[in-house]
Write a structure and sequence with these properties.
This protein has eight helices and 18 strands. The chain is an alpha/beta fold.
Length: about 325
């Protein structure tokens, strides 16, 4: 890797694991591109990205462009004289950026491409009940996540996996795959292959308020998988109809049982230690949730101080 001059582009914690692996394995990272600081928290103070915080710790050069086509940014990027760029959880690049280095620009994506192209592949793999996923390195091209594949590595999705636990496994696996890819490019042994054509593509679109809402009119298992695929972030949500109020509630942990019943979908049954919601062909047992304006709580602690009443319903 001694002849490589690498620019790394990334923003969240997932990207930090990969950047750390490059630095600790003595890759020549000549600069880091990350998102501008953003307001966060109740005070709306500017907060640096996870990648920026790590880059500052290691004394790496940092640029935070708002416009990737800005002439000043492009000039500074060219002055770094990089011959390879690595992208992990960053935004889409214009061609004049990704085509700049001699050895190209490759991306680490947290799925087995071509499946789960898009912004949230880790979440959607669990939400859709997949048994396996993985990581893929590929060269950037004009479209999103469609470039020629360099390497891929498969990772099993465990029975009670959450997006939090799978994120960490894929970050570790992805870090190793990036190192493998960099070494192959350095040695001239990388052989990119076009992504296989398939008509049964599953996408991984950006998460929003619409596609993270729980649909209680499903069987228990897919609802449970949906909630695990959004835990701990951004969290699945639902409306709780309580007395005369409608509250937005986030749900982080559940269990389920398949069982025939005649209860109304969304109706709730509580005891001192249990809250269950009737769904199609069974029940969802809520283990951890967050009421509006409150901290996340386990269900036993919540039930000790909150009475849902007899007519409450999840919608």
């Amino acid at each position: 890797m001694k002849d490589l001059r690498i620019v790394f582009m990334g923003t969240p914690g997932f990207a930090v694991g990969v950047l750390r692996a490059l630095v600790e394995n003595h890759a020549n990272v000549v600069g880091v591109i990350t998102a501008p600081d953003k307001p966060a928290g109740r005070g709306r103070k500017l907060k640096a990205s996870a990648v920026k915080e790590y880059a500052l710790e290691r004394g790496l050069k940092i640029v935070q462009p708002t416009n990737l086509k800005n002439e000043d940014f492009l000039t500074e990027l060219a002055e770094w004289d990089a011959n390879l760029q690595i992208i992990v959880a960053f935004r889409m690049l214009p061609k004049l950026v990704w085509a700049m280095p001699k050895y190209g620009t490759f991306n680490l994506h947290a799925s087995l491409l071509p499946q789960y192209r898009g912004a949230a592949p880790i979440n959607w793999a669990i939400m859709n009940g997949e048994k396996k996923t993985g990581v893929t390195t590929f060269f950037i091209d004009e479209k999103i996540d469609t470039g020629a594949i360099l390497f891929a590595s498969e990772v099993a999705i465990e029975t009670r996996e959450t997006v939090g636990s799978l994120h960490d496994k894929l970050m570790t696996e992805g870090s190793d795959l990036v190192l493998k890819t960099v070494l192959a490019i350095s040695e001239g042994t990388a052989i990119p292959k076009a992504q296989p054509m398939t008509s049964a593509l599953k996408e991984a679109p950006k998460l929003n308020a619409s596609n993270t809402r729980i649909d209680w009119n499903q069987d228990p298992e897919p609802i449970d998988a949906f909630i695990r695929g959004l835990s701990p972030y951004p969290a699945a949500w639902t409306e709780l109809h309580y007395e005369d109020d409608t509250l937005k509630v986030k749900i982080y942990a559940t269990d389920f049982v398949n069982e025939c019943h005649e209860d109304q979908i969304g109706s709730m049954t509580t005891s001192k230690k249990e809250l269950k919601v009737a769904v199609r062909n069974g029940y969802i047992f809520i283990k951890e949730l967050q009421m509006p304006g409150k901290r996340k709580m386990d269900i036993i602690s919540l039930l000790n101080g909150f009475d849902f009443g007899s007519n409450s319903k999840m919608m």
